[in-house]
Amino acid sequence: MSTEVHPTALVDPKAELGVDVYVGPFALIEAGVAVGDRCHIGPYSRLAGQTSIGPENRFESHCSVGAPPQDLKYEGEPTRLEIGRGNVFREFVTLHRGTPGGGALTTIGDSSLFMANAHVAHDCHVGSKTIFANAATLAGHVDVGDEASIGAFSAVHQFCRVGQHAFLGGFTVATKDCLPFMRTVGSRPSRCFGPNSIGLERKGFSEDRRRAIKRAWRYLHSPKMNAAAAVEVIREELGGQEDVDMLLDFIATAQRGIILSRG
Prior knowledge:
Shape: elongated
Largest sheet: 11 strands, mixed
Strand content: 25-35%
Radius of gyration: 20 Å
């Protein structure tokens, strides 16, 4: 198989295409874009800006990739979008480049699924094996950990974080950080409902790992102590376990606070 470009597609001579790439009808690939091997660029998709795309990505159709950030302070400075390998981007997904004030870089890892109308704004950093359901939206400067799932029509406020293995239910509005391993659901205020036990089991978490995460959650959720006291108890009783330490580090480094439902 060799690279195939549909006669109606437009590929700038200064764009780079790898081997075995397919470019569909009416797709547009602009100067500065580098497309890795075995990528599929569906019809009416636009790839723009300084955008680097790894191998085996699939853009189904009508995707906007590497467009300028939606930031009034942006004045055309050179910024980038970098995408790993093996991701699937469904219809009308939008992915924006960074801004000078946010590091000038938006990144997406490997093997994620972005369903129709999902949006990743400027200066976001998305890990690997994530799932964005239909119309899941990240504002600027959002970090999403590996294997997190963001439900349909959910929105994450700028400068917030979504932890590894976190699960956000549909229509969630997250204005603070969403804890790793936990289920966060709801809109203004959203609430944390504890470990995503079924999801963690499906991902291969052992019973001991799930039990430790659940014990940590019980302390965080306890009405008998505040969050700071709960963190100290968790550190004393459960510290040294990788998942628990990740959870504690996430809490300690929160800049906007964490979403936590207390009794």
